[in-house]
Each structure stands twice: as C-alpha cells, then as structure tokens.
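<amino_acid_chain>
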Amino acid sequence: MNWLISLLFLLLCFTAHGQENWLGQFARQVEQEARRHNLPGYGFAVVELGQSPQIFTYGKTQKNGQPINADTLFRLASVSKTFTGALTAKLVQQGKLDWDMPLDQLAPQYEFDPQQELKLGHILSQSSGYMPNAYDNLIEANYSVQRVLNQLAGLEPICEPGQCYTYQNALFGVLSEGIRYRLDSNYAELLQDNILSPLAMHRVSVGRDRLVSDSNWARPHALVARGQWYKTQVRADYYRFAPAAGINASLNDMVIWLEAMLEQYPHVLSGHTIEQLLTPRIRTKRELYRRHWRAYLKDAHYGLGWRVYDFDGEKLAYHSGWVKGYRADVGIAPDYGVGLVFLMNAESNLMNEISVNFWARLFEEKKMATSMASQP
C-alpha cells in the first residue's frame, strides 16, 4: 500500500507538468521495484481498445542471457486454464462435448462414481466438490496422469458437485484424457486448430520440450535468499496436465489473447462464448481475504477457466499462474476494453502487488475521466 501512495503522489506531480502519462509512470515504478528486489526479468503488456498495445520488458532470460523482449516465451502455468475454458466452450458449441457430460462418460477408463453426478462443467468451474488441490502432491512427485486420475476417481468429495469452490489441477487431466478417448485427438492439436491458428498466435506452444528447445525463452528462477535468485530447472510435472498448466506464450501472443477476450475476433471467440466464460458460477469467498486484493474485492467467483471479481464496484476477469520459477497474471476489464498480462521468470510475490495497483489505478483513471467529461 505504501508503494501505491508513493505512485499516486508521483503521478500527480508528472500529470501537473504534462511530462508522462499514468501508464508510463506505472511502468517506471514497476521497474524500480524490480531492481529493488533484484528480479531476473519480466514483461507486461496493456491492451486498450482503440489504441496501440503497449509492451514493457525488463531484465534478461537468464544471467548473461539475452534481454527479454515481446517474443520471449514464458510459462503461463494456471493462466493456461483461460485457454482451456475457451477451447472447451468451442468444443461444446461444435457438439463434440457437453457441459453436462458425466465424467464416467467423458473418460470411462477411470472409475468415477456416476452417483456423484460429477460433470465436465464442474471441472472448468472449479466446483467438483473434491478437496482443494487434490493430489497436486502426486503431480509434483511425477506420478503418471493415469495413476493420479485413478486415485482421484476413488476420492470422497467434501461437498456435492456445484455446491462449493474447490480449486483443482489434477482433475483437468480428465479433460485431456476425455479428448483422447472421445475425439481421437489431443489437447495441443485441438487448441492449435480451434484457438491458436485462427488467432495467428504463432509463438504459443504446449509442453516442456517446446519451451526449452526455443531460441528465445525465459529461464525459471527461484529465491534462495532475500534478493538472491538462482536459475532452476524446468519441471515437467504440471506440463503433463496440460489443460491445467501446460501452455507457453510470449507477450505478443498474449496481446492477441487479451484482444480476443475483449471480443475483437468474434469469428474465433464470439460474444456469447466470452459471456459464458465470464459468467460467475461458484463463489470463491477465500479470494476476498488475499493480501493486497482484500482492500478492493467486494465479491469473487469462478466462471469457466476465469475468475470473476467485483473490484471496488468494477467487473474484472482475472487469473494467475504460479509454477516453480515463474509467475503469470492476466486480466480484462470488459466494460472499459482494457486488458493486462504480466509474465515473470521468477517466483516473486511482487506480482500480486503489481496487478492490484494496476487495476486500482486504471479504474481510478477511468472514473476521473468520466467525471470530468460529465462536467459542464
């Protein structure tokens, strides 16, 4: 919060002298904080309909590596779920899947209890009823997808499906297994055919091998001590559950993704599809108590692959991602046609503060502009 106060003071000073707009000053402040925390690198992009996207980068892919640029690949981690929500919605529209399809029909090779009435829509809305993050420990212990899902199929729920919010990663493996069984395809192929190629998102890829074989990718970094980061290995664990956390992307690609979610490519993602994704499905009460966010969140839900927030009276669709060595954040304010993506090759909690401060300032700017426009 001290950072926000300092930022607002500087913004007032710069605005008074007409030297720099609020976004430029915000970017400078982010870079100052990155230097103070000795972050390896990051990149972020802001999309506002009717204006050119603005991209800001800092640092290097690794020590003595190349500077991060708009084409550098990062892991999206759980931001992958936003793509999975959109892909699933399109497959439903094509009649290939159904939101009400029971899991024992979607992936009959796993013995999900039909009496639980667990359905495809419960996966994407994080309302399965299983204990939160069920068997993430098995993912991280490198158990096979099949073994994890067999364990999951025998798990007793803590509530009825659709009745409580229980965030999952392993359960998304049912979707990729179901795609293979029912559609004789795989997640990466369907994502390419239905989302990536139509949107010309040429740098997006699925899987560890596609990341580490690229000539321009950001290496992961973990914190060893205050302000001291070390390069770590890219783990394959969550990549094996690709619909949950298996996508890599660049800033340039994510600009297109933000534009698509702001209804700029209706031939790929229609307004109806986006409305489906961003309709609140299950309340996520714990989000209201997150550090930094709690000062602004009035209500919080999960849609289909997206979180849906009431951010101090404004609608914000959002998702974050975190795997070893990487952080990612993406958000859109549909009512204002604005989107933000932030990608970092370090596990820094500074990400939360950056995102909150951006949206707080953005909504303040928009309200001020509306107020000034209404004055005689």
Remarks:
- The chain is about 40% helix and 20% strand.
- The chain has a mean pLDDT of 93.
